[in-house]
Write a structure and sequence with these properties.
Largest sheet: 7 strands, mixed
Number of strands: 7
Structural class: alpha+beta
Bound molecules: coenzyme A
Oligomer: single chain
Number of helices: 5
CATH topology: Aminopeptidase
Radius of gyration: 15 Å
Strand order of the largest sheet: 1-2-3-4-5-7-6
Length: 154
């Protein structure tokens, strides 16, 4: 894989990361969720809304050749991974796996024994593949149902 830098995202980058996430949702998650749900998911990543979220969570950017091509977020105290999205044109190139490993190491360094996440239906096979165990289905009428999953760290 070409050099990939993973670093904290700057607030001004909400204007780049929000649309990246919206492209990923429309390109991939639309296969598993109704159009109205897809629009609600995308609305959560309007840059102004995403900027508010950046105050609550640590948001990271994956950068290749100066371009942001993926993102993932993390927050305590629940030790939860959120909002993993890869630019559609570079999906299946190992970047998602790199970002998950990055957050696992970040959480372990902060003393977390376990990492949880709420996987989109679309992404569950990816997290299965990465060794995450399924805890339960989380039915959400307004925001897209997910699978609560977890992995022991260390
Ligand atoms: C799900 C997503 C984050 C995965 O990232 P990615 O960079 O495409 O995945 P990677 O290339 O790192 O894949 C790592 C491994 O998982 C496998 N994998 C990836 N997506 C998979 C899928 N949908 N089903 C089964 N396996 C999958 C890959 O084949 C690879 O396995 P290998 O290394 O043994 O060949 C990305 O496809 C994405 O952004 N999807 C749309 C948005 C989304 O659903 N995000 C998650 C919200 S919770």
């Amino acid at each position: 894989m070409r050099d990939l830098q993973i670093r904290k995202a700057e607030p001004a980058e909400a204007a780049i990361i929000g649309p990246l996430v919206q492209r990923a949702i429309r390109a991939r998650n639309a296969a598993d969720y109704e159009p109205a749900i897809i629009e609600m998911m995308c609305a959560n990543f309007e840059p102004a809304k995403f900027l508010e979220r950046m105050a609550e969570r640590d948001v990271f950017a994956a950068v290749q050749d100066g371009t942001i091509i993926g993102t993932v977020s993390f927050s305590l105290p629940r030790a939860k991974l959120y909002s993993l999205f890869i630019e559609p044109s570079v999906q299946r190139g190992g970047i998602g796996r790199r970002l998950v490993h990055y957050i696992e190491q970040h959480a372990a360094r902060l003393g977390c024994a376990e990492l949880q996440l709420s996987a989109a239906i679309t992404a569950k096979p990816f997290y299965d593949h990465l060794g995450y165990a399924t805890i339960r289905f989380e039915e959400r009428v307004n925001d897209g149902s997910t699978w609560l999953m977890s992995k022991r760290l260390g």
